[in-house]
Specification:
There is one protein chain. The protein contains three helices and three strands. The protein has about 80 residues and is α+β, with helices and mostly antiparallel strands. It has a three-stranded antiparallel β-sheet with strand order 1-2-3. The longest helix has 15 residues. The chain is globular and about 45 Å long.
Length: about 80
Amino acid sequence: MYDERKVDEAVLALLHLNAFKDRYGWRAWKGLDWGALDRLHERGLIGDPKSKAKSVPLTDEGVALAEELFQHHFGIVSES
C-alpha cells in the first residue's frame, strides 16, 4: 500500500526534470507510472497520456506545479 498523492507529486516533479518546450508548449517524456499519469491527467495537469506520442503535454498549471514540487522534493536547501 502507498500514498497515491505522494507518488503523483513525485511523478509530476520528475516530469519537470525531463520537460522540454517545443512549438506547441511544454512536454515531458512519459516513461513513468501509468496510474499516476492517468491521475495527473484527471486533475488537469497533463494532457491525455494514452496516445502514440512518447511525450505528454503539460498544462500551464502542471508546468508551474511540477517545478514547485521538483524544488520541494529534490531542491538543495540552503543552510545559511
